[in-house]
Structure formats: structure tokens, C-alpha cells
Amino acid sequence: SPENYSSLASAEETQADEEEADDLKPRRPFWRRLLYYNPCSYYLPRRYGVATLAFLGFCNVYALRVNLSVAIVAMSSDEFDWDSKMQGWILSSFFYGYIVTQIPGGWLANRFGGKKVFGYGMLTTSILAIVTPVLTRLGGAPVLVAIRVAQGLAEGVVFPAMHGVWSHWSPVHERSRLATIAFSGSYVGTVFSLVISGFLAEHVGYQSIFYFFGVFAFLWTILWLTNVGETPAEDKRISEEELNYIVTSIGTQDVVGYLNRVVEVLSLENFAENWGFYTLLTFLPRFMKDMFDMQLSQAGLISALPYMFMALVVQFAGFLADYFRATYMSTTLVRKLFTCGAFLSQTIFMLGAAYVSTPGWAIACITLSVGLGGFAWAGFSVNHLDIGPRYAGILMGISNTFATIPGMVSPTLAGKMLQNGTIDEWREVFSVSSTIYVIGAVGYGLLASGETQRWAESISTVDLTGATDSD
């Protein structure tokens, strides 16, 4: 009919006008189109692209943290006359900065956005790493200590900031898997840092360690800051369907909160997990040398094995936890099962390592002790997002403040206990860590919750588009 022909002609004219308008829009320069190109967009939801970039970010976080433990050996033998006491002070100085910015990191993430805080923290750390060799040569140990403290201050914001990112990006039933994908980068970064730093120190020189990891982290920072939106609504590469899915899942979020018993128990769990982690990270090569007379180079390579296993377990645990939450169990039960199960497993295998008589069994026990601890990351570590999603960054900052204390205390205490490196001394060291694990498991089993807390029920709520509603 004439009306149909008229409607069709009108639609064609409208389409032609839109195409002409698109042609008239200024196109981005090639370098900007290349920079914003996202090859994962055809295969992965955008939120998993963000998780992958965050994974690489945490690889950098721990690579920059761990590389000095290898570099300082070469520095002390090649250029600087540092005794073991001075080396210990230099290695521990990082945590004196790290502990300061945990809670401020959560506040900054809530105020300015987790993406920015994470990115600028890493930018600062990478630049400090690049200038470390030159400044240390000029000023010696005091300057290196100052640099490490400054790096600790910059890195202290990253864990709280990442919880701030997931408070906007993670659908409720995907919190475990997205968070653990990102956090597993910590252990992959530890492995690569130990292996690559040893190679660079031996074949190129200790300076190359700082240049290599510093430049790599700097390039990652640029990629992160230019490719990730602060929220899904601000991201340039997210599809409309995925944006609607995330917004619908998260809904409105609370804007008030304060410390309560559940937050205190999360602090206890973070403390317990890191006590054993830093004890083994610092002394595992020495344990293999003292007990089985392994060369340090061989012991160092074997020491990387448990952390690679843990990286795999962390990612698997995240998917498994979300599956259990969606099908069989409450969030509270899942968090308790994964955390308490991990801590008790770590207790058993850590004690087992001190009582076996062969290197193979010792390596197996330590690998299982460290690796099975990865299940706890799908427990207490994600729990901040359960109890108060909007303030997850601040909650993580509070608990991670307590988690930093073991980094300063446990290596010092273990060093004093290991006067001669005998089997009895090592059993005492592992017994202390195991006792702390048991206390953490009991406390979490009795007091933890996976439900949004009453204090987190919003008086004022903010949706993802920025509109505010008041009761």
C-alpha cells in the first residue's frame, strides 16, 4: 500500500542519514584505535578481560616485591659490603611502608575509584624500581631502605583498591572467581620473579633485575589506566547486554559501614594466612639446605614450585566456590568450608614437612601446604565483598593492615629460633605457624558470615548511574 511504501522510504532515508552522520564523525588516530583494541572482546565477557589485566597487575605487584630477595645477594657480593643484619633490615623495610597505606588505600579507592588508585600505586612503584640501581649506588643502604619504604607505601593501596574495583565490576554470583583470577597473579609473579631474577643476576647483573621488572610494570600501568573503566558504565568496550547484567546483579550499594565482629575475624584470618606464607617465602630455600643439604640455586628453584601450584588452586577455588554458592550451599557455609579447610590442610602438611626424612616427601608436603592455602582465597579474602560490597576496599585495608604484621615479625622470630638450623628448631618454627593456622580456622568457623551485615544496610543508597535515593 502507499502507506507501507512511504514508511519504507522514510526508514531508508533515516538509515542513510545515520550512516552519513557516522561517516562525518572524526575517527580516532590509528595509535588510539590500536591502544583501545580489545582482542578478548570476541571471546570473553569484558569483566573477565578486566580480571585478566588485574592478574597481570598482581604479577607485577609481587615481582617487584620479591625480586630484591635475589638481587640483594648479588649486590652484597659484587658492590656493597652488607652483612646479614643489614640485608634483613633492607628486606623488611618494604613492610614498614606497606602497613601504613592499607586503610587509606581503601578510603582512596572509595573516594577516587579503585582503578585509579591501583594504577597510580603501580606507576609509582615501577618508577622507583627503575631508579633503584642508580640511587642505591649514590646513597648506599639508607637510600635503598628509603626506596623500599616508598614502594611499600605505593603498593599498600593495591589490594584494597582491587576490592574497590570488584565492588563495581563483579556480579554477586561471580565474586569468588573474578577476585581469585586477579589475586592468583601474586603467586605467578612470585615464581617468575624468583626464576628470572636469578638468571638476570647471574648473566646480566643485578641492575637488570630492577630495570626489567620496573619497565614491565610501567608498561602494564599504561595499559591498565587507558583500557579499563572505573565502572562498567564508564568502560568503552563493554557490551550493552553485559552492562545491564552487571548493573542488575549488583543493584544499589550501601554507603555506610563500621567495624564489627565479622571484620575483626577477617583481620585474624588475613594475619594467620600471611604468617605461614611469609615464613615459608623467606625461609624455604634455607629449610631445604639445612635439612637436605641442597645447593641454594636448586633450593630456590624448588621453592617456586609451591607458589605455582597455589596460583592454579586459587583460580580453581574461585570457580568452585561460585558453583557451590549457586547450587548447594549458602555463602556463609562456602566461605567457612574453604577457609577452615585450607587452614587445617596447611597445618597438617606443614607439620608433616618437618617430620619426613626425604627431600621428595618434604617438597610434596610443603607444596601441598602452600598450594591448598589457595582455597582460603575463595573464602576469607572474598568475604569483604559479601559483608559490605560498597566498602570492600576499606574493609580489605583494615584486615590487610593486620596481615602486614607477619611480614615484619615472622621472619625475625623464625631467624632467632633458627640459631643452628637443626630439625628441632625447624619443628618449632613450623609448630608456631601451624598453631596460628588452627586459631584462625577455629575463629573463622565460629564467627564468620557471608551475608551483608546489618550495619551495611543502606540509609542512603547509590546506584551505578550515580543517582541517590534516601529513605
Automatic annotation (TrEMBL):
Listed SUPFAM superfamilies: MFS general substrate transporter
Keyword Transcription regulation recorded: no
Record domain Major facilitator superfamily (MFS) profile: where: 49-452
Highest taxon of the lineage: Eukaryota
GO MF annotations, alphabetized: symporter activity
GO CC terms in record: basolateral plasma membrane; lysosomal membrane; synaptic vesicle membrane
GO biological process: carboxylic acid transport; monoatomic anion transport
Chief place of localization: membrane
Membrane-crossing residue ranges in chain numbering: 53-76, 88-110, 117-135, 178-201, 208-226, 299-321, 333-355, 361-380, 392-409, 429-447
Membrane topology (UniProt): Multi-pass membrane protein
Keyword entries, A-Z: Cell membrane, Cytoplasmic vesicle, Glycoprotein, Lysosome, Membrane, Symport, Synapse, Transmembrane, Transmembrane helix, Transport
Region (Disordered): 1-23
Localization, UniProt: Basolateral cell membrane; Cytoplasmic vesicle, Secretory vesicle membrane; Cytoplasmic vesicle, Secretory vesicle, Synaptic vesicle membrane; Lysosome membrane
Keyword Transmembrane: yes
Reactions catalysed, as given in the entry: L-glutamate(out) = L-glutamate(in); N-acetylneuraminate(in) + H(+)(in) = N-acetylneuraminate(out) + H(+)(out); 2 nitrate(out) + H(+)(out) = 2 nitrate(in) + H(+)(in); L-aspartate(out) = L-aspartate(in)
Role of this protein: Receptor for CM101, a polysaccharide produced by group B Streptococcus with antipathoangiogenic properties.
Annotated protein name in UniProt: Sialin
Organism listed in the record: Orchesella cincta (Springtail)
